[in-house]
Amino acid sequence: MKFFIDTANLEQIKEAQDMGILDGVTTNPSLMAKEGITGTDNIMKHYVNICKLVDGDVSAEVISTDYEGMVREGEALADLHSQIVVKLPMIKDGVKACKYFSDKGIKTNMTLVFSAGQALLAAKAGATYVSPFIGRLDDISTDGLNLIAEIRMIYDNYGFDTEILAASVRHTMHVIDCAKLGADVMTGPLSSITGLLNHPLTDIGLEKFLADYKKGN
Ligand code: G3P
Fold first, then answer.
1. pLDDT given at position 117
2. Residue 194: other Cβ atoms inside 10 A
3. What is the helix (H) or strand (E) element at residue 13, kind and residue range?
């Protein structure tokens, strides 16, 4: 299972990268705005800075909603760095743009996916990643994890290569449940990754080992 971090915060990206377990980064316009990164030039520079920090794929989202605009933007994003994955919204023109980039060998991530039907379309368009938003489904009393299970079944039925990127992950149990269900990738905040470290028995055990060592030395 790949671990992506869902942020545009360079310090958090660096912290996850330094742990040696980071496989990539996902961003979106809201996450960029949260870091105060505005204006096309600054946003483009920030993507390059993120790519320099990590070894894996970095999803960069288009803001156009028409096919021509998405192609233009996506090509500019892909030209920025070899690690860039063009992130496209799950709308008709987004699917068409996904097929365009897939045919050109440019990696894509279909975002804002909330149903199995949308995930099927993403796979048909040759998306590298499909991003079902599990947390936002949970927010409206709909089981986000069930969507991961449905997509896994459908993709396995037909051998689709599109990787299931569980997105809008909010906490550690989302990560663990997604792993059980066979999601290929998860993307979440730093806390959803570092939280996996925590167990009181680890802390108690370590404290005792160190205390016992001190007794003999
Ligand atoms: O990866 C998708 C993500 O950015 C959305 O997460 O927490 O805003 O629903 P959230």
1. 98
2. 14
3. helix 10-19
Closest residue to atom 10 of ligand 1, CA basis: 168
Residues in the chain: 217
* Residue 6 beta carbon below 6 angstroms from any ligand 1 atom: yes
Q: Which two tokens stand for residue 199?
A: 């167990």
Cβ 70 vs Cβ 93: under 8 Å: yes
Q: What amino acid occupies position 133?
A: F
CA–centroid distance, 24 to ligand 1, in Å, is: 15
- Condensed to tens digits (0 to 9), the pLDDT of residues 175-203 reads 999 999 999 999 999 999 999 999 999 99
Q: Is the CB of 138 under 6 A from ligand 1?
A: no
Whether ligand 1 lies within 6 angstroms of the CB of 29 is answered as no
Which one of 7, 114, 136 would you pick to mutate in the ligand 1 pocket, going by the greatest count of ligand atoms within 8 A of its CB?
136
For residue range 31-72, what is the model confidence (pLDDT) as tens digits?
A: 999 999 999 999 999 999 999 999 999 999 999 999 999 999
Query: What are the backbone angles phi and psi of residue 73, rounded to the nearest 5°?
Result: -65, -45
Specify whether 87 is catalytic.
Answer: yes
The atom of ligand 1 lying closest to the CA of 133 is 2
